[in-house]
Amino acid sequence: MGARRGDRGMHIDQHRERLRERIALLAALVEGAYVATIASASERPVAASGRMALLHDDIVSLSQEVQAEATQFLVRFRPVASDLHFATAALGCCADLQVAAVAAARVDAVGGETEWALAKSAVPSLDRLASCVYVVVSLMVDAVNEWDPSAVDAVGEARNEAVVVREQVRAEVAEAVVRAELDADAVMRIDAIACLLERIAAVSAACTRRLARIGPVDQITEAVRA
Fold this sequence. Notes:
Strand content: under 5%
Largest sheet: none
Helix content: over 70%
Number of domains: 1
């Protein structure tokens, strides 16, 4: 009986590790999609390379793998509270990362219709917001790779900085409207990009908070090993 419990604990650890690895890879793909989006913005007007479409396909495929793995994890083993907590957090992280990926794709699409040089001139904080959001995403990816719940504070601070800059973007957009520097469509596109960037920062922070609720890797399987 003890050997069986030990085997079960080992299999649970293996499933959890596979889930962690897939979520870490998914986070890295989302970071890649965000970097590609920002790079595309700086390269306008360059013809689309199709890299965002390829990244999106990879993200969708890997998200499906994570969902299937989490479901199998729950079906295969009798779920105790720690199993349910872990699987729920894994699925939540997956959902957060999918939202971030979709938002990055929308930034890329909306940005394709925007004259970035003019946008940065009229709304200089937009570039800073993109940089702040990258810091949030990068810290989130590091936290997921290391499964480090202590990173939640650093990610939260970076997200708060992005929120402050988002308000500056909002003020600059309003000033651009008053000065009539941009047409109405351009102003709406810039504000839409800022909203999407803010969304990416928010879900990246949410993903990190899920890790904090689970705890460090060496504590995850403590209950089933006992």
